[in-house]
Nucleoside-diphosphate-sugar epimerase
Amino acid sequence: MHIAITGAAGFLGQRLIHRLLKRGELRGEPIRRLTLIDQSEAATPEAAGVEVVAQARDITAPGAFDALLDARPDVIYHLAAVVSSAAEADLDLGLAVNFDATRALLEGCRARGLAATRLVMASSVAAYGGELPEILDDMTALQPQNSYGTQKAMCELLINDYSRRGLVDGLVLRLPTIVIRPGRPNAAASSFASSILREPLNGEEAVCPVPTELELFVMSPETVVAALLHGAEVDGEAIGAFRAFMLPGITVSVAEMIATLREVAGPTAVERIRHDPDPRIQAIVGSWPTRFHTRRAEALGFPRDTDFREIVEAFRVASTS
Amino acid sequence: MHIAITGAAGFLGQRLIHRLLKRGELRGEPIRRLTLIDQSEAATPEAAGVEVVAQARDITAPGAFDALLDARPDVIYHLAAVVSSAAEADLDLGLAVNFDATRALLEGCRARGLAATRLVMASSVAAYGGELPEILDDMTALQPQNSYGTQKAMCELLINDYSRRGLVDGLVLRLPTIVIRPGRPNAAASSFASSILREPLNGEEAVCPVPTELELFVMSPETVVAALLHGAEVDGEAIGAFRAFMLPGITVSVAEMIATLREVAGPTAVERIRHDPDPRIQAIVGSWPTRFHTRRAEALGFPRDTDFREIVEAFRVASTS
Ligand SMILES: NC(=O)c1ccc[n+]([C@@H]2O[C@H](COP(=O)([O-])OP(=O)(O)OC[C@H]3O[C@@H](n4cnc5c(N)ncnc54)[C@H](O)[C@@H]3O)[C@@H](O)[C@H]2O)c1
Ligand SMILES: NC(=O)c1ccc[n+]([C@@H]2O[C@H](COP(=O)([O-])OP(=O)(O)OC[C@H]3O[C@@H](n4cnc5c(N)ncnc54)[C@H](O)[C@@H]3O)[C@@H](O)[C@H]2O)c1
């Protein structure tokens, strides 16, 4: 089993690598080789019996995928991307990294006859927009209101078409908001969703910029990684008529998140949250859909977090161990 | 008023040109100039006071749109495309003509600051697919099951994003099946839909390859052209969160089409239809959606055919005059 990962130095890439090496197999076959691509140097962990090759490469450069594809990987995780704010600030950069590089990857697979290679890409809830129904489902239109979501939606269509034509075996998973991300608060509008739990659990102050009634559709990092693994293993024939769908997140309000924090870490933790409304963040996050019937993902056996308390407990265990 | 038309030598391009010249104005302004692009030589009609420039050009060639865009048209109709069967037979050609050329056109508008130029493009019912609901609406997902529909859907997303960013004033109209097309039967799966009316009205034989219960979602050529005109005039602000939607066709069964033929042209006309089932055509056409709530188009005032009999009458008048 040879697995290639683009964006391997990123948050999900790193977690996925560790989980793959710990597991040692994918699709019932021992992992013999990992090829890692990122523009930043990806950390290359050691693992007995696994050849790990890290390539520092800009995926927008001509031929960036040649070495990777010449080695005919069985599974490709395509995770390299510029995030929402960067794609909005620079249309050319977003199109080049998020769309053109994906197309080049597809063309590379086609040119080498990698019809059986499973290509798993991460899309996003940011691809939704417009006059959404109260509960979304697998047939809700993608009408993105940002360039990042537009580029992701275009990739979904192209991967679906290349898969339908038998040129590659593609699958695109739309990820919910990931909570709890480790690390520091960042510029992402959703940063607070991890911050209001992570910082208090670490004994630090956090700012909550939204009303506590606001809801989010979330998935834990562990479950996202489990979904990526499942995405490599799920039967291509079973996927159905379109090769992209939303993963089964859970809907939680900020109030429920804070109540869970109280249960897990007590009232002092909750007192570390300062409420400081920010209409800009409220407007962005408040426009994201939060209720989905994720029938396709469930029928295919994709995992779901069972309850929010487990997410918080798991983070506490991980950060104190 | 300067209007540019790509695909000007095609079926809709030619009809649009004649209607524009007959009308003499668009958005209340006299038409002074028409720039026509097509790879085939477009017929250039004479009209007093209108400068008509025809450019024989392959729109996939570098700089193909330069002369057109340098002249800063007020309205661009982007109708050049390779049709469904050609795009399915040749993925590269479909991507180059249907997608890359559209992107080049958008980039050309952006580079020249043509933010106020209304770009009207034609998309298609072929962009729909997958597990569709019984009645589709403006929020039904595009999950195309063919490369042509994939390329049209990608253009919709890109035009929406360029419009949202204020780089152009775009609008994409998804067209129903056009009935009655003049001319001869062709390789299109929907060819019979025009043929079973047109040939009998012209005293010729026609073949009906589908069961008469089969339904279609149709629009007359006159109404499509009226919709294209309206597409140039509708207020950009009013369009809403997504710059693409389905036009209001009408749902008719083949049995109703034949009954209308009988009303208009009598039983001898109907006897000219030979029923010869073709499972391949049945499978393709039977998968097309036929029932839509086209709320966005209706709210914006797009025209609809009032009844099927009028479509047949109009064709008879046109072809005997
Ligand atoms: N984390 C989330 O909440 C979330 C949600 C939805 C979707 N996604 C998607 O999941 C994927 C991974 O997300 P993440 O959180 O790990 O992101 P991340 O930003 O941590 O990682 C992305 C990686 O891509 C690399 N990259 C960017 N441009 C590159 C280029 N031109 N050449 C080579 N490498 C380049 C970056 O160096 C980075 O290491 C992305 O596709 C992202 O869009 C993430
Ligand atoms: N007629 C329909 O039933 C229907 C339905 C849905 C959508 N559409 C869309 O409406 C538009 C017009 O349709 P039509 O019926 O007039 O099609 P058509 O085939 O009659 O006209 C298309 C024109 O595009 C030109 N063209 C193709 N490739 C070109 C290239 N590389 N460079 C320059 N010109 C090129 C062709 O020469 C042709 O004149 C198309 O975008 C089509 O996809 C049509």
Notes: Chain B has two domains: 2-176+220-246, 191-216+250-289+302-320.
